Amino acid sequence: MPYIAVTALSHVGLIREHNEDSLVVGPWTLCGTETENPQTLVFPLGTPLVVAVADGLGGQPAGEVASSLVVRRLAALGPSLDGEEPVRDALNLCNHAVYAAADGDPELVTMGTTVAGAVVLAESLLAFNVGDSKVYDAAQDGLRQVSVDDSPPPAPGHRTTSIVTQTLGGSPVFGAITPHVSSFALSAGDRYLVCTDGLTDPLPDDEVDSVLRVHDDGRAAFELWKAAMEAGGPDNITFALVRIGT
Question: pLDDT of 123-180, one tens digit each?
């Protein structure tokens, strides 16, 4: 019977004082905390399964509140996300929810978060994002980013940028979003990586690709986390590996 194996990890890294990342895998959420080891969950292929990460905005209040609100909302909506429009609608609902939660509370005003993820359907995968968290197709012929970064090109001589041009929440007054959503055909053996920039800022794509060419599931997750930590662990590290098995 076809199945979906999702291996996830969330860690504070080496620099940050606490974890503002959150994670959703189907009905399961992990918010503002960390896992001791990679965790693998297995689901039957068929009913829509949402796998997503949310990265609370650093330098602004209550990032962990915004990210946890978003993944919990996605967990509740997950089984209904059976097409591109329902995914866009869900992300717009999440954006409204972040602003509503911050309204009138001086401790929460301007809180915000990025989000990136995938909805696995019976024969296709919907990749989505708002912000600079990423989704990759980890194909045999090489790693390919399928999300769209909401950020300007890095400055000359730099590989990354900390500037984000679109987020859920994040402003003192409501701002509409234009979610990025794309559909891809799905086959047995396909693998996708959903991650916050705490993984990809310290690790170039070719390093991520080299790990995923050699390892699967829990070992792959451990090696990716180890590589990010050895590269300085400058931010919270949260990611999920999605594999289609038979």
Answer: 999 999 999 999 999 998 999 999 999 998 888 888 888 899 999 999 999 999 999 9
pTM of the model: 0.97
Residues 6+ apart with CB under 8 A from 200: 134, 160, 208
Distance in angstroms (rounded) separating the CA atoms of residues 205 and 183: 22
In whole angstroms, give the CA distance from residue 101 to residue 110. 10
Q: How far is CA 9 from CA 31, 121, 199, 234, in A?
A: 12, 23, 11, 16
Give the CA-trace dihedral at 11, 16, 19, 22, to 10 degrees: -80
**Residues whose CB is less than 8 angstroms from the CB of residue 61 and which lie 6 or more positions away in sequence, other chains included:** 107, 108, 109, 110, 111
Helices 63-77, 84-102: crossing angle, 10 deg rounding: 140
